[in-house]
Amino acid sequence: MKNARPSGQGKQHGGGPLYAALDLGTNSCRMLIAQPAGGHFEVVDAFSKSVRLGVELERTGSLSNAGINRTIQALHVCARKIKLHGVKQKRLIATEACRRAVNGEKFMARIRNETGLKLEIINPAEEARLAVVGCAPLVSHEAKQVLVIDIGGGSTELIWIDIAEVAAIDRVSAMMHLKPSMAKKALRDIPGARVVDWISVPLGVATLLERYSDVEDDAARFALMSWYFEENIAEFGPYLDDSADLLEGLQMIGTSGTVTTVGAVHLGLTRYDRNKVDGMEMGAVDVDRVISHFLALGPEGRIASAGIGKDRAELIMSGAAILQTILRIWPTEQIRVADRGLREGMLYSMMNADGVFGKK
Q1: Which residues of the chain have pLDDT under 50?
Q2: Domain count, the chain
Q3: Whether 231 and 333 share a structural domain
Q4: Are residues 118 and 139 in the same domain?
Q5: Residue 126, CA distances (Å) to 32, 159, 160, 313, 326 in order
Q6: Burial state string for 276-309 with b = 16 or more CB within 10 A and e = fewer than 16
């Protein structure tokens, strides 16, 4: 990532407009500030902070005061960065934790009053769309079916898209131009493509872990989390379709801290390197091997592991339960790892809408 000199006067970096995308999730508050660069974008500033906003949400139904205060502090930093860079075009979203919490809207008002930032609580359909758009550049020209897996803190989105009828050269573009709809399934078919089905499961790494936090045995807890997640995707169309055609030319793309952590451990990285992880491919057997390693380490071993660390030691197993369940249900040789997601989806969407891609 290139660093650009900030300016309180709103100086544009390289002559191009700046865009900000902020994603407030159940665990983290993350923001990117970027400018268009050809058909892509260049990040000029970034922010990421673990705020654990959704702690106790599964039990109480509300956002805790401690989580709210941690998040407000992080959002003050984001507000300063936006002002410092003079960003005019921005989109700031909140997802599952704020959707589910009884005090979610009240929290949005407090954010506006205290930081000046206006966040929108997006619906699951828009979250699914942004995940697809963010991961679109990783779609293979050979793919006929694409399953995008977004394992968040409070929810997991699965989006299955049939692109067999789209010309290979147009497949990335078709994915990036996915449009939202308020229809029952709330995702329109892409021209030349077909949204087979999508689902937003209200179980992510934090909420699934919290549900089984009283189970002391590590392996038993993992098995229960896997079983419960599968129970909650029974209404997903491809879960009921056992035809071989569904798996022909299937490409899985996983975006989440779970998937990137598994990828980094598979590569043997002791220090995370996005350049090595983003876009890499892992075999399903490699994923199983890494998860077996996590289980063998046990809770204390995972905390001490350089590839996992204290912050992710608990959450990695609930995410691993979700990931392994998906790979078992839809066997595939490989999964592509995406260190990208909603923020990238917002940036691509805003820049596409403004027609700035390709401008010098």
Answers
A1: 1-12, 182-184, 186, 360
A2: 2
A3: yes
A4: no
A5: 19, 12, 15, 30, 22
A6: ebbbbbbebebbeebbebbeebeeeebeebebbe
